[in-house]
Amino acid sequence: GWGLAVLSQAILFSVLPPETAWRWMFVIGALPALLVFYIRRSVTEPEISAQARARQAASGDRPALWEIFSGPILKTTILASLMATGCQGGYYAVTFWVPQFLTKERHLSIVGSTGYLSTLIIGSFIGYLVGAWLADRIGRRNLFLIFSIGAMAVVLLYTQLPLTNEVLWVLGFPLGFFASGYFSGIGAFLTELYPTRLRGSGQGFCYNFGRGIGALFPFLVGALSATTSLANAIAIFAVVAYAVFFIAAFALPETRGRVLHAD
Q1: Which CATH number is 67-251 given?
Q2: Alpha helices by DSSP H, the chain
Q3: Where are the domains of the chain?
């Protein structure tokens, strides 16, 4: 999807004026939402979830959202929310502003930046595959710790060293690799942190809390870039976000191999 978006950008900005092209990009970006109709009709609920819901219906025990904020689960919710904030805030700070960084500070045209973004996307795709494999091989937690450190290191190299555009083109691969690959383990990890009866509430709250706070990072990067370079602003907020990601993931337990129960 991301790759098709960049390809669409290259085509539309080549044939249309920028004032119109970005509007058509929004139209194209809305089209994948139509997939929800196929998913709703054709994708079945997991068996363990169906069993849990049947048991709840029989007993009348309906889980409440606020249960994820009570007892020992509260600590999990706080740490998982911070982890989701860090991983998404770092991702947004990098991917949202890299095109602007390439065009404004590296003086590439929008079409000329397509190759750089394509390298970033290829790195991201490979990162997703490797991240999924590592999540099962070495554990979810270790995946997050390794990739957060890698992301911090590459972001600093990408934004802080006086590199040529050719070197930046090469660095786009590891930047995409480390800034995206950890997402392959996020869903499994959040699922395994909560009992089945609270799994939707726990995962949904933590991930979207992180999405909401993380969505502020592009704005904060832009605000800070008014007083310093865009490269510095990206680096500061990305490193802060990935540091929060690292610390929260370190404080949470490993869940690889945890047996899920219908309760």
Answers
A1: 1.20.1250.20
A2: 2-15, 18-30, 35-42, 47-59, 73-100, 114-137, 140-160, 165-180, 183-193, 199-214, 216-224, 230-251
A3: 67-251
